[in-house]
Amino acid sequence: xxxxxxxxxxxxxxxxxxxxxxxxxxxxxxxxxxxxxxxxxxxxxxxxxxxxxxxxxxxxxxxxxxxxxxxxxxxxxxxxxxxxxxxxxxxxxxxxxxxxxxxxxxxxxxxxxxxxxxxxxxxxxxxxxxxxxxxxxxxxxxxxxxxxxxxxxxxxxxxxxxxxxxxxxxxxxxxxxxxxxxxxxxxxxxxxxxxxxxxxxxxxxxxxxxxxxxxxxxxxxxxxxxxxxxxxxxxxxxxxxxxxxxxxxxxxxxxxxxxxxxxxxxxxxxxxxxxxxxxxxxxxxxxxxxxxxxxxxxxxxxxxxxxxxxxxxxxxxxxxxxxxxxxxxxxxxxxxxxxxxxxxxxxxxxxxxxxxxxxxxxxxxxxxxxxxxxxxxxxxxxxxxxxxxxxxxxxxxxxxxxxxxxxxxxxxxxxxxxxxxxxxxxxxxxxxxxxxxxxxxxxxxxxxxxxxxxxxxxxxxxxxxxxxxxxxxxxxxxxxxxxxxxxxxxxxxxxxxxxxxxxxxxxxxxxxxxxxxxxxxxxxxxxxxxxxxxxxxxxxxxxxxxxxxxxxxxxxxxxxxxxxxxxxxxxxxxxxxxxxxxxxxxxxxxxxxxxxxxxxxxxxxxxxxxxxxxxxxxxxxxxxxxxxxxxxxxxxxxxxxxxxxxxxxxxxxxxxxxxxxxxxxxxxxxxxxxxxxxxxxxxxxxx
Amino acid sequence: xxxxxxxxxxxxxxxxxxxxxxxxxxxxxxxxxxxxxxxxxxxxxxxxxxxxxxxxxxxxxxxxxxxxxxxxxxxxxxxxxxxxxxxxxxxxxxxxxxxxxxxxxxxxxxxxxxxxxxxxxxxxxxxxxxxxxxxxxxxxxxxxxxxxxxxxxxxxxxxxxxxxxxxxxxxxxxxxxxxxxxxxxxxxxxxxxxxxxxxxxxxxxxxxxxxxxxxxxxxxxxxxxxxxxxxxxxxxxxxxxxxxxxxxxxxxxxxxxxxxxxxxxxxxxxxxxxxxxxxxxxxxxxxxxxxxxxxxxxxxxxxxxxxxxxxxxxxxxxxxxxxxxxxxxxxxxxxxxxxxxxxxxxxxxxxxxxxxxxxxxxxxxxxxxxxxxxxxxxxxxxxxxxxxxxxxxxxxxxxxxxxxxxxxxxxxx
Lengths: 687, 413
Hints:
The complex is a heterodimer of chains A (687) and B (413).
Chain A lengths: L3 H4 L6 H10 L2 H6 L25 H12 L7 H8 L1 H9 L8 H7 L9 H7 L3 H8 L9 H23 L23 H12 L19 H9 L2 H10 L2 H10 L2 H10 L2 H11 L1 H19 L3 H13 L9 H13 L7 H9 L2 H6 L31 H10 L9 H10 L3 E3 L8 E3 L9 E3 L2 E3 L6 H11 L2 H15 L6 H13 L4 H9 L17 H11 L3 E2 L2 H10 L23 H15 L6 E2 L6 H6 L1 H9 L5 H12 L1 H13 L4 H10 L8
Antiparallel strand pairs in A: 1-2, 3-4, 5-6
Helix pairs in contact in A: 7-17, 8-19, 9-10, 10-11, 14-16, 15-16, 16-17, 17-28, 17-29, 19-20, 20-24, 22-23, 25-26, 26-27, 28-30, 30-35, 32-35
Chain B lengths: L3 H13 L6 H7 L11 E7 L9 E2 L4 H6 L16 E2 L5 E2 L7 H5 L3 E8 L7 H10 L11 H5 L11 E3 L15 E2 L14 H10 L3 H21 L15 H14 L6 E6 L17 H20 L6 E6 L20 E7 L6 E3 L20 E2 H11 L6 H4 L16
Parallel strand pairs in B: 1-8, 1-9, 5-11, 5-12, 6-7, 6-8
Antiparallel strand pairs in B: 2-4, 3-4, 5-10, 9-10
Helix pairs in contact in B: 7-8, 9-10
């Protein structure tokens, strides 16, 4: 211990600087102004004075646990002390050297879609677009008999619903029973009705009246139906688990939506996935992702990697409910983001640029050069092809959000030209689970000038690569990425001294994200009073840190994910390409605070669905000294104000009377009250 | 049964004790006794994603509109449900907005055309930020126009500024208290035994951010409790649409009717970024039509529910920029420039399209592609801030804004 101070400011050696300057990309040297002069923390403008004040040694340990993990478990502080801060940081920077927690591996096991490639995800969890294609006879049925049964059923329902909508217009076609036979397709439906029905069928939340033909009475005995309607949760769960597998699907289809939701919520993970698969296959993918992310944050031994994954996914945000992203996001996170959080920025950028998830999300897959071959009229085409055109969406967000930043010095013309360079970067069968494909026929072959670089006419896929190269090595990118990272890991308004040195490191190391992260973590500003407890937790961080602090056992990450939705941070469902703001103070509003207090109280009373908190663990310590319990959960002393508020509550005769009455009925409630108050306190909202 | 007003009176006393009832609360409690005291209310609705104004208020008198939008134009008014609803011989409402037509006929609804930001950005995020901060081109602004529009009060009502959103939007951020609410009924500490403990923790916390927000939280909880006691039934048999905008407006209506000192409210509605399939196979169908349906019906429901109270209310809608005049290759439109705003309320001189129409001919377009801005959005908002909120300090609400050509007289003085 105690060596961080000595090491921190002197880390980068002159030799390293010299070597890196020699190999620096000529591109960068050629085009850019001199980097801003390095300043020390003490030379920042006055509002950053606190970043020049070093933390006392003990607070450094708290800072490490607060900032480089999702919050301490009881006992983590001791482990960190034994390991030593420097060695511990090195382990966090090299997760490959630390074995993963077996409990995590075991809990991730059932979440099968997490490991699947795009095509398998598409076939195993048929998305609405596949169901519709099958119903219209435009796609084959799956080979797997179980999947086939599911798809047939959903396609049948799709046709049935379509007919319902049409019956008003008196063009009733017979409902097809689809044993592989394509239904009555492209019938005389007015196209708008067809569209409306489709959009409804595509709504994953629409599970009304799944199948009116299936009656509960044919599946369950009257007694069982009574349990279903009036039974206790445990009885309902037992009923579900004891149903033979071949009856379960019918059973789910016969339920009213509300009954179904209740049962799905209480089923154990394997059974729940099976039930969801039969009514909303695509929902399983979203749930697997959300659950996996929560489980990793709570249980992983690679905490910094998970924090960085969260940061970089958010930086390159995609929205899982947009079209094909329903089945591409697991692969995106696993193959385009995770491998690079300690890799090179350029590689990360390239992986996202080529990912079907991003290509679809920002529409680049359908962007065509105005004069490209694909965009010319085809005189002999069977039917007129829809004329597509250039789509600027990816070009713009690439510069504004992924690399240069909005003040990074680019023009609308740069956006257009970058977009032209990426024409032809598309997806092979975007709605059928295809991967990245470069289609030269869609490419704009003209000359383009991007940020002053001339990209010659007649190029192909390499035009896009060139743009990525220019952007990945641009000083504005170095600055913007450094600012974002420091904003997330140091303070909402990080000191310019740090951001500038990080930008230097970025350029010097060719965008080596491990080195960039290391430089930030080892900077004096990271270990300063300005950074200490400067960040407000996001709802995700708040929930995860609370579960960790209470040693909560995740019994259903699915239900915990729903709690997180209520707190305002649905995972993988941030619609805008900005992702969630890295300036965390924006998460604080009256309503958000109230939600957090309520979550804290529920958790500490073991009343949050999906989490089991052993409230008995606090009894001994709480009986001896209530404040010791507060300290155990916070891993440090609560503020005087928090202590006195808790003390006052415990001394309140009215509350004591109530607690005494309740004590006859159940376990003592004082420890839970203290824990709930601490988790809902102002200090627990910060990290 | 005691009325809610009686309840409010007694709970105000219970909350604050005799002699120390804040002015906002006594004003709220006695509002009906002294109607002159009732505050005017301004409601801002942000359509996030840049709504295609040219397909909301259709310039059906412009041949260029039909020339540039061969497959997504809304047909000229012909009385059918697939064509525009004529307003003045030149402009017409999208057929999905038929719910708003009576408001136009009653002259409660005004339209401002070719309105937008002087900043040329086509980034959603920048343009939204500029419109919400009220300082186009200036990123350093930390607060929002709607917050600055509130006048400082020694004891402000915790519910004077409410946003029906999960988080406080930029428009309402700033030094005046403002509250983000998801659902009125959920706004309470679920374990009443320790509500006071949390209140004291946050009320005394040295953490400035959490202390400030914490205090606001607990004041608001107390007011909310009074609203929660009375179940809400909209007036005149009105049914609000089930989507987010309809539900937000219904909750705003509930707060307004509780007379707890609301001055400004905000809500937003997304989904307008229609790059692809903006219009369905029929001109009156598709994504935009679906969104407009809910939009128009929600505003109409709100107006009916409010009834006579509309005399005190002005609603204004805005969106960060318009969309390209020419349709793109995907039956959609891309990011453009000027747009359209609606202003609705009792004091509105409605039934009229305000603003200079710049035309859609090639040489009349901004950067040869977009509708030109002839009215700065701040000109519209300035008038509302002055007349509706009584704040004459326009230079501090919209610093750096000087209006040269401007629309005036949307509101009766």
